[in-house]
UniProtKB/TrEMBL annotation:
Its EC number is 2.4.1.1. It is an enzyme of class 2 (transferase). It comes from Rossellomorea marisflavi. This is Alpha-1,4 glucan phosphorylase. It catalyses: [(1->4)-alpha-D-glucosyl](n) + phosphate = [(1->4)-alpha-D-glucosyl](n-1) + alpha-D-glucose 1-phosphate.
Length: 800
């Protein structure tokens, strides 16, 4: 299509004028971006077609990753880099007077996810394609992704996100591959030759129309597919309210659920889940049957992964299709299904373990309910054989109990593999949360520590560091991230360390400029950039961070000459719209910022910045500039975390608890290259169990804590109103569920260690380099290699 800069320019100009209907000088940035996107997608098409042909004819085992969230971010830069044409395009556009960076900024983030789980799915897609694995995503094309956050006077406001406003250049609509999805209605059964068959009648049918996105691998011709389903009206039934049918249908893919932890009572969410899995499973089976004849061997050619419990209805849907549509008997269908599915658990937070009320479930999905009922009955019978008379145990494991369908139980019973996302998380699942299941199915449980794509999170988002690495060790690390370890030979090279410092300063300066532009706050790039960016949640303890900042402020006031190094504390976080406590913490961060930022006693040594509308593309700007990465969840609560890995890979040092993957980061870098504080998971869980923690004692015995907490309610904070009483009460009257006060002293001491370590710049840079050099383990290429080898059993994948 084009292989030189000249050919690119020619093709681009021609297409630009043809598609916009304008002469080049009159085209807008949006026209130019759209045309570039279309041209690149066409460029990708050849390899896309070839990859699909290859999968069809070579009959390779295919992996399907079902996820209700794919937090993709922007694709232009990633696609150009993966195709190896970034520079060609950059220079070609440069000749036309167009800055490629400006066009990158036109692209709206595809924010089809809330946080870690959705971003993990996006990283996995990149790794699978880059490793030439036949792995595809199935998800939902939400019209509005995660809400846009506006901060007004310190309060979070939510606006609908509009990624599709100007169309989306990376997708291809495929109406011919539409699927019909039935909701409501009744099930009629009939008998023939002793076999009962079922018919879903009087259902309301919704059309699931696929939009395919190419997933381009790095340095390869493999192009996999991410298929996103859009809900559209199918057939209006006479006698029904046509407008209501249209509204109800379109509502299914209207909004991403704004919270991945609290789903209760949300029928729409259940509709979304069935919509996704029904369309996907039937497509997967049709495609399988076009390549192979025999459904009994399905699991040898197809692996289906369910990303948390949201897509777990894929299991009964597969049973339904095999039995009702292909006439398989129950036992064979169950055998094939359980050998095909694998399930990842992403949290132990009990509010995130999905359960559906039977009275909501049954009428909406009558045949699926019947199947789950039967799975449950057979499962309970097996349990009875294994544990005769143990009613309590069987009740605790049942898939339907107390009027609820328990999605995690269904996922475990119906999959051959159940994995946690970090070692500690898997251990907590095995020993506590899912212990009964672990006793019954010990062989199913395994651990797969999360990973991130180093291509997006280092190569693409941190050009100064990536080119320094390249100049030192070449570019083999891009395909094989374990080779980042070669950087260790530079830890004593002061010229290299000096360059590392320069790269960091460049990124800090860039972020400082943005902060000035968006927040009007002047921050010093020579100060320590201490960053906490993630969803706002009580267990992630942004509260601990902001209270400690208030404490530093108090120290400045008590002793204006106190030896406090200059620090810029940066926050980015969205609170779920209905999560009022989290919103109050956002307000608190702003109040403390207002108090501290220009206070004369502080003398500019502390700056607090809240960056609005945290999202993937913003994270890509923030992370390369970090000196300190705050990963301070209450131990045992964060399943893994992936932000921790992104920061480490960009040379930030972790200030964290022994939680999630922080533990494995510590194992990689050693105690001397990380700042660990706080209670351990066992201690937290023990104190929770025996009730031995009294937060009030910490209030009364630690003057710093008493002072900070009193400041929440005594009018010291600007514009406090009565907002912070809720926070005050949560810490004292409600006994501080997340051990904020308990960990405060240890956290403050860890900050002192950070401050004193930062003073010795050479040693700090060495620590930073060790973090980068040992981050290869946290590439999602390693994670995917483990999934492929140990769960999906796809041959030929070496563990790098
Ligand atoms: O496994 C990916 C991430 O998933 C979560 O975000 C989730 O949605 N449950 C967890 O909270 C993270 O710890 C985890 O890294």
């Amino acid at each position: 299509m084009f292989s030189s800069q000249e050919e690119f320019k020619e093709a681009y100009l021609k297409k630009l004028e043809m598609t916009s209907g304008k002469a080049f000088p009159d085209t807008t940035l949006q026209d130019r971006y759209d045309t570039l996107g279309q041209l690149i997608r066409e460029y990708i098409s050849m390899n896309w077609i070839q990859t699909n042909e290859q999968y069809r004819y070579q009959k390779q085992k295919q992996v399907y990753y079902l996820s209700i969230e794919f937090l993709l971010g922007r694709l232009l830069r990633q696609n150009l880099m993966n195709l190896g044409i970034y520079e060609l395009v950059e220079e070609g556009l440069g000749d036309l007077g167009i800055d490629l960076k400006d066009m990158e900024d036109v692209e709206q983030d595809a924010a089809l996810g809330n946080g870690g789980l959705g971003r993990l799915a996006a990283c996995f897609l990149d790794s699978m394609a880059s490793m030439d694995l036949p792995g595809h995503g199935y998800g939902i094309r939400y019209k509005h992704g995660l809400f846009e956050q506006k901060i007004v006077n310190g309060y979070q406001m939510e606006l609908p996100e509009q990624w599709l406003r100007h169309g989306y250049v990376w997708e291809v609509r495929k109406p011919d591959l539409m699927m019909q999805i039935p909701f409501w209605g009744r099930i009629e059964s009939s008998e023939k030759d002793g076999v009962t068959s079922f018919r879903h009648v009087d259902a309301e049918i919704v059309a699931a129309v696929p939009y395919d996105l190419p997933v381009v691998g790095y340095g390869t011709t493999t192009v996999n597919t991410l298929r996103l389903w859009n809900a559209e009206p199918y057939a209006y039934k006479a006698g029904r309210d046509m407008m209501k049918y249209k509204r109800d249908t379109e509502a299914i893919t209207e909004f991403l659920y704004p919270d991945d932890t609290q789903d209760e009572g949300k029928v729409l969410r259940l509709k979304q889940q069935y919509f996704l899995v029904s369309a996907s499973i039937r497509t997967i089976l049709e495609s399988y049957l076009s390549r192979h004849g025999d459904l009994t061997n399905l699991h040898e050619h197809v692996a289906i992964h369910i990303n948390d419990t949201h897509p777990v209805l894929a299991i009964p849907e597969m049973m339904r299709v095999l039995i009702d549509e292909y006439g398989m008997d129950w036992d064979s269908a169950w055998g094939v299904t359980t050998k095909t599915f694998a399930y990842t658990n992403h949290t132990t937070l009990s509010e995130a373990l999905e359960r559906w009320l039977v009275r909501i479930f049954q009428p909406l999905l009558p045949r699926i309910y019947m199947i789950i009922d039967e799975i449950n009955e057979r499962f309970c019978r097996d349990l009875w054989d294994a544990y005769p008379g143990e009613w309590g145990r069987i009740e605790g494991m049942a898939i339907i109990a107390h009027g609820e369908v328990k999605m995690a139980h269904l996922a475990i019973a119906g999959s051959h593999s159940v994995n946690g996302v970090a070692k500690i998380h898997t251990n907590i699942l095995k020993e506590r949360e899912m212990n009964l299941f672990y006793q019954y199915f010990p062989g199913k449980f395994n651990s797969k520590t999360n990973g991130i794509t180093h291509r997006r999170w280092l190569l693409n988002s941190n050009p100064p560091l990536a080119s320094l690495i390249q100049s030192a060790i070449g570019d083999a690390w891009i395909k094989d991230p374990s080779r980042l370890s070669e950087l260790e030979s530079f830890t004593a090279d002061s010229a290299f360390l000096e360059n590392l410092h320069k790269a960091k300063q460049l990124n800090k300066k860039r972020l400082a400029d943005r902060i000035l532009q968006t927040n009007g706050i002047v921050v010093d790039p020579d100060s320590i950039f201490d960053i906490q960016i993630k969803r706002l949640h009580a267990y992630k303890r942004q509260l601990l961070n902001i209270l400690h900042i208030l404490h530093l402020f108090n120290r400045c006031q008590e002793n204006p000459d106190a030896d406090i190094p200059s620090r810029t504390f940066i926050f980015g976080a969205k609170a779920s719209p209905g999560y009022y406590y989290a919103k109050k913490i956002i307000k608190l961060i702003h109040s403390v910022a207002d108090l501290v930022n220009d206070h004369p006693a502080v003398k500019g040594r502390i700056k607090v910045v809240f960056l609005e509308n945290y999202r993937v593309s913003l994270a890509e700007e923030i992370i390369p500039a970090a000196d300190v990465s705050q990963q301070i969840s209450t131990a045992s609560k964060e399943a893994s975390g992936t932000g921790n890995m992104k920061f480490m890979m960009n040379g930030a040092l972790t200030l964290g608890t022994l939680d999630g993957a922080n533990i494995e980061i510590q194992e990689q870098v050693g105690d001397e290259n990380i700042f660990i504080f706080g209670l351990r998971a066992e201690e937290v869980m023990k104190q929770q169990q025996d009730g031995s923690y009294y937060s009030m004692e910490y209030y009364h015995h630690d003057e710093r804590i008493k002072k900070m907490l009193d400041q929440l309610i005594d009018g010291s904070l600007p514009d406090a109103g009565d907002h912070f009483e809720t926070i005050y009460d949560s810490l004292l009257a409600e006994n501080d569920e997340f051990f904020v006060l308990r960990d405060f002293d240890s956290y403050a001491k860890a900050h002192e260690r950070v401050a004193s370590a930062y003073r010795d710049q050479e040693s700090w840079l060495r620590m930073s380099l060790i973090n980068i050099a040992r981050s290869g383990y946290f590439s999602s290429d390693r994670t995917i290699a483990e999934y492929a080898r140990e769960i999906w059993r796809i041959g030929g994948v070496g563990l790098r």
